[in-house]
Amino acid sequence: KMAQDWLRPLRPGYAMTAGAPVSRSTSAPSKAWRALGLLCLALAWRLPWSFIGLGRGVASTRRPSATPRRLFSDTWVDPQFWQRQSFVCETLDVLLPKPKPKAKLTAVEVSPLDGRYIAFLKPTEAKWYLEAYIGIGPELSEDQMNKIRKESLAQGAFARFQSWPSPEVPWKLPKACVDMALFADGAASRLGPGMLEAAIRQVKRCLKPEGRCYVVASPEDEEAMGGRFATGMKGSVWETCGFELVAANANHGLVVGYLRKKSAGSTLAASRPRPVKAKGDPSASPRSRSFSTTPKPRRKRPA
């Protein structure tokens, strides 16, 4: 009936007067107009149900996906993304080094993807500066380098990149020239076992004696490393290459760890790393400290 009312002003012999159709002829509508009205009625009934796949005789040809599609994934609209970003930012803020005031530090990232953690490699207060950022990876596209370069320049750091085609090729960096090294989540999985071990050895060569290596790892990355942060990365590729885990924190499906080069005569006594606590807690010191396996002698009480 609605379709007939809509088509009534379009029929010959009808005119609109004060918003209502008034017949000027008593002749019946032609067969063509009747057919058009029936077609509109059929479309008005079938079309809405066809969109949702519930109409009679209408079968949906779209295959259901094996995994649900996540819109706006890995963007600030995704709640899991900004929760992870906030967690990594807060943890790295506690683990950042404390150099001399107005010092200029250099950071290297292995197998960078988008440079999302560059802003977290500098303190919230301008006590020291991130002067240079170096991205090294087997395959770096021009779009990736442009995006990372913008992120680095926004933090006041000059960005440069190096291609690393095979594990036999050494990095074009001098020895002990880097203050911080970063492995973002997904880097270990992308590198694979051979490239990962070679990258860790290159990081060890380029890091300063007091340099720090930060690792943001997913469960897949922990599997590629051959160890778990909860157990101190015992038996992992990090222990094989001469690193020891100092602190780690886990939340939102990620683990943020701080590792350093093993020094002679200094080993971690505990099998598990110390947890990272929020600022303001007197027991939460971001500075690394040596743990001795020899117990301290007890003081004798006076008689």
What does this structure look like?
The protein has 303 residues and is an alpha/beta fold. Helix content is 29%, strand content 22%. The chain has seven helices and ten strands. The strands form two sheets. The chain has an eight-stranded mixed β-sheet. Strands 1-2 form a two-stranded antiparallel sheet. A hairpin with a 2-residue loop joins strand 1 (14-17) and strand 2 (20-23). Helix 5 (187-206) packs across helix 6 (219-225). It is elongated, with a radius of gyration of 33 Å. Residues 13-18, 20-26, 49-72 and 282-296 have low confidence and may be disordered.
Set out the fold topology.
Layout: H1 2-7, E1 14-17, E2 20-23, H2 31-52, H3 79-95, E3 104-110, E4 129-137, H4 142-154, E5 158-163, E6 178-183, H5 187-206, E7 207-217, H6 219-225, H7 237-240, E8 243-251, E9 254-261, E10 274-275
Parallel strand pairs: 3-4, 3-6, 4-5, 6-7, 8-10
Antiparallel strand pairs: 1-2, 7-9, 8-9
Helix pairs in contact: 5-6
Short recap of the structure:
The protein has 303 residues and is an alpha/beta fold. It is 29% helix and 22% strand.
Proportion in helices: 25-40%
What is the residue-averaged pLDDT?
Answer: 77
Shape by Cα distribution = elongated
- Tell me the span between the first and last alpha carbons: 108 Å
**Low-pLDDT ranges:** 13-18, 20-26, 49-72, 282-296
Beta-strand content: 15-25%
Give the neighbour order of strands across the main sheet: 5-4-3-6-7-9-8-10
The SSE string, one letter per element, is HEEHHEEHEEHEHHEEE
Q: Could you say which structural class the secondary elements and strand pairing correspond to?
A: alpha/beta
Please tally the helical runs, counting DSSP H or I stretches of 4 or more residues. Answer: 7
